[in-house]
Task: structure prediction
Amino acid sequence: MARRVPLDKPDTVIKTPQNFGGVILTGFSSPLDVARVNADAQPYLDKIISERSSRSIPSDTVRCTRLFGRSATARETWLQQPAFLQVVNHFLRSTTIPYNDANGITLATNAILSAAATLDIGPDVKAQDLHRDDFIWQHTHPYHSGRAEGKHELGSDVSVGLLVPGVKTRKENGATMFIPSSHLWDDSRLPKMEEAVPAEMDMDEAFLFLGSTVHGGGANTMPEPRPVHGFFYCRLYLKPEFTKEEVRGWSIAAQKQAGYVLDSPFLGHCNEGNPIDLFRANDGSNE
Result:
């Protein structure tokens, strides 16, 4: 059973993934905001389903990509909650002191959004293979004494995932399966499905997990689809999965999460400034 912690207790939230690899955040959303994000994604899902149907292609799992740009509620409400950002950046903030800096200046960068999508898991869709999300960056998990002793090493993670259910989610309709404490395994240990437990959630909750945690989407044995909204963060110096899109109308905080307003004075600059400034210069906008 996945452990639950109120989002408004971020210090307690942080301890749970350290020990178990993931945590269900209670009080993350309201059912009304879930309905809004569902509505933002639905037209894109319907279009894909219609196109597949016209070509006699099974719907299976349908994805609404670019959700960060397509849902203002997700972008500006869900993902700007201070307690949520405190937790994500606890695991993914990078802090260094350049070895040749006589002034001892510390460089600190927060997490960046890697990808955002709605996954609509159709009826009779089989369970996803168990995996770790950080494999897309070819991240490895070598043996060390801390892992053997069951101790999480802060700084070892390169990504964090967040899943927000679009409907009440149970094992029967495909709740995400994860293996508690598997983030402490080295790569020599292979997962078994019988070790996994479902992250069952109501519509005001969300499942936050480390990219090193072994997990996979569950099998949907119910007659209705099971939508879930996924948001994935990585360290600033890693390449995000998603392609950047129109950002001028987003809040400064959202632009920063997408990499258009810099945390670092060097990484990702455009003409020695913020990438968003290039858009403003091109269209004469001061927004």
Summary: The chain has a mean pLDDT of 87. Residues 73 and 244 are 18 Å apart (CA to CA).
